[in-house]
Amino acid sequence: MSSVESETMECEDAQEQYELDSDSDDSDNDLEEDKKEEELRSQVIQLKKQIAENYLFYDGHVNLIAALRELKELEEARNAREAMSKVYPLSPELWLEWLRDEQNICATKEEREYIKTLFERAVKDYTSVQVWVEFVMFMIGGGNIDDTRRVAEQALTAVGTHVAEGILVWQVVLLVEKQICASLNKAEETQTDEDKKVFKKQLSRIQSLYRRLFRVPLLNTEAESLLEEASAFYEGELDPHISADIEKTQKKLCDKIPYEDELLKCETEIEKLAVFRRYIAYTQETDNPAAVQSLYERAVTTHCLDTGIWEEYVRFTLRQFQGLDYVVLPVCERSQRNCPWSATLCELHIRALQLFAAEGDSNIASKIKGALEKGLNCGLMSGSEATRMWMSYLVYLRRLIKWDLDHEKELEGFREACQQAVEMIDSSFGVEGDIDSEIPRFWSQIEGEYVKSPERVRDIWNDIIMKRNDNYKKPFLWLEFINLERSYGIEKHCRKLFRRALERVWDNVELIGDAYVRFEQESGTLTTMEEFLKRYDDRMIIVKRKRAEDAEKLEAEKQAEEARSGNQKNKGKKHQYQQKDVIRRTNGHSQGGNEFKAPFQVSKQKKGSKKDTPAHSFTETQHELSGVLKNTFQQARHSEKLHQPPGIQSDVSVSATIPDSNKPSTPDVISNNTPPGFLSDKPAPGHISNVAPPPGFTSEVPPPPGFVTNETPPKSSNRESSLSGNKRILEDSEEEPAAKVAKLSELYGVPTQKDTCDDLSTIFISNLDFSVGKKEILPIFNGCGAIKEFRLVLDFKRRSKGFGYLVFSSQDAVPKALELDRTPFNGRPIFVSKYNPESHSHNFKYATELEKNKLFIRGLPFTMKEDDIREAFQPHGDIKEIRLVTYRNGLSKGTCYIDYHDEATAEKVKLAMDGKELQGKIITVLISNPPKKSGATTPTIKEDNLGSGSKSKKTMGGRGKGMFDLMPRSLMRATNPTPSNVDTVTSAAEGEMKQKSNDDFRKMLLNK
């Protein structure tokens, strides 16, 4: 075989192999395309199903259009776009895609008219320079110069003042006019007079456009190049005013460039919105309304879902363009299409439709009703928003009623609308939707004042208003009802209402009483007045009794809460001091092995005093003890023999317990530690060793928790004191029935010996939801290690206080448990920290210093939940965490904390949301700077500064100085420095006042 033949065969083989490979690649591509097409079609089916279930699914509409475009299903894509346009305004990008798709298949005049209609719809949704440029370019291809100029003029009005991109529209419009001028510029010998006239008119049109352009501050323009372009269309020299216009325009542009630069540098939408607001405020002061409107259009295009900027824009147009319905109404309509959930925008739209309604316009009613339906059908989250929308519509219907003409039809329509509003709000939001009953109260006022129908007024109040939200307890609603009845009803029903109100109202009953007595004074008789006074007095007895009971309950709860607050440590010390003082006063003497404690309270011993120095002054102690002994002696005289508790020796006579002034005192009766000033022949009150217990004392009563004997109580923590007290209760109850022991164990816990090793394997859990118990907490920490015990801290009503202690079997589980800190559970983070046995305060890990990345919001509506707050604040910045402050029952306190990822975002949100209105309430947004948690107070001594005034002295566990100084005047007198008190005066001058004993006070009193 020759070499030529072999080469030929090799080429043929290579060609065959290439064809095989090509066929293989084509088949693979076809398979991939088929697979992709199948996935797209399944996606289209799923998206259509989702949109059918929820037509407000914005992303579903956008994704469906994109999938249909990729499948080349232009007819279905057109239907999908039409469906979306009925619900939401389309963005400029969506409109440009739609318009280009339609232009690619445009072949007939009808299709061209349809595209023109699409352009007109597109420029109404959002003001976009690119859409207007495409519109003008499309009109040029139509060949109708008048229509093109009309659209060009609309484009210049709409976006010609757009500082950043407006030059594009001017260039397109000038290009069209220049081409027309070039077509009219014929050779001079061929021009007729008519041609010259038309050409001169075209030059004048171009000159006018340049003069307008010179007055508009636009970026990407150079004055010199513009002058050079304009000079070609001027005969001779330029107008001398043009230079002055250009100079003013350049100055304006220089002032606006910083704001434009800020807009370009903004990284978030919140920053850009803040810049837009400053930019608009500056332009309102320095430029014309058209420039301000252009800025508003740019702002709402970028932030189409921000209700605040839309509200500002609508109010600006209503104020600035009064009478120009073609400017105001499109803005109102677009605002509600973008933010249909806003009650404020709905109210403004209905108001604008009424302002610009032509006389006899039959469509105004349908337009206003459509605005209401647009707002109600958007999925409102708050009943207050629905109430405001309905109220704006009902006020419009009330204005349609002409009371001097035949108005039965209008009145019936108003009544049906009121009833429909009440039923709709009740079905969607419950009886608390219209929490103040605003709609039925408005309805009843119209029925009473204009219709003069007291029966219908009573029906509305009795059936709608007073049966919801405990309105029958509110005195101001009763007074409003009574005033309507008194104005349009009869006296009999008015008196009945007064009686009903008096029986049902508990708070501010005096308001009803005052109104009732005025009514009887003006309309009643002596008999009815006496009847009222008796009824009112009887009612006030019941009300005052209930108020006293409520006050007692509140005070008891307050005291119990204080006993378990952060001052528990100080109160425990005070209790120990009292026990020590009791032991010291009785000198440890007992009767038959059982000690009887004095039935009076001994104050805590002052720090720094001697052990045997009483805490009270002599006169106070003598007064307390003498009062106690006097009661004991009086009861002893009426009884031949005191009933002694078990354990007291029977040979002890009753007379031994009662001091006799005729018998000399013996050492067995008088304490060895007699206070100074007692005479030797009289026993010191309170220092009797053998005193019988008070009547009614029995040994079956167990001592209270913490009760100690003569031994000095050791220092221990509150937990150890509580356990020791519980242990004594159970020890004393060993002979009691098992049911009682079990009940005590359930209430106070089972006493166990404290193991110090448990402190190292214990964690402190806080910020728990009050409904969370042991069953819910243990599964969270089971993965950390074996759990030995969980102690949830409860209040005096056996309710959770939101924190507790978890004890593991091993210390190795503690680090793992600490990693679960801030784990979300039941809508709030669980705080996990190490157990500190020395600390008795519960630090819930909330910061107490300035947090620049966290905002504090107050004034929130009480009905707002975390999701509502997130929805209101999320558009302004990505939220890291929200903490809504609530009461124990879960109801909001109207404040919350929002944590952001950085300080800049928090500052921008603060500027954007501070002072905004949410659900009818103005909120305040501040950078979080919570006060430091209150702990143990440190002693503060009053400084005698000039002008300092009277300041209270606060010491550890003490009370502030009251209004009156109860120190005797003899002690407040300044004494002359005698040799006996020279040292005292000297030390007082040096600021070191020496403490006085009872002897010192006695001498001062005797020297008086």
Automatic annotation (TrEMBL):
| Residue ranges of the TM segments | none
Superkingdom of origin organism: Eukaryota
Please list the residue ranges that the record marks as compositionally biased, kind Polar residues.
650-675, 709-725, 973-987
Q: Name one GO biological process term.
A: RNA splicing
Outline the extent of the RRM domain.
Answer: 761-837, 853-930
Entry-linked CDD domains: RRM1_SART3
Query: Which ranges are annotated Pro residues under compositional bias?
Result: 692-706
Q: Name one GO molecular function term.
A: RNA binding
What is the protein name given in its UniProt record?
RRM domain-containing protein
Q: Which organism is it from?
A: Halocaridina rubra (Hawaiian red shrimp)
Tell me one Pfam family matched here. Answer: HAT_PRP39_N
Task: Answer yes or no on keyword RNA-binding.
Answer: yes
Q: Provide ranges: composition bias, Basic and acidic residues.
A: 551-564, 991-1000
Q: Where is the composition biased (Acidic residues)?
A: 7-32
Coiled-coil region(s): none
Subcellular location(s) of the protein: Nucleus
Q: Which UniProt keywords apply?
A: mRNA processing, mRNA splicing, Nucleus, Repeat, RNA-binding
Where is this chain primarily localised?
Answer: nucleus
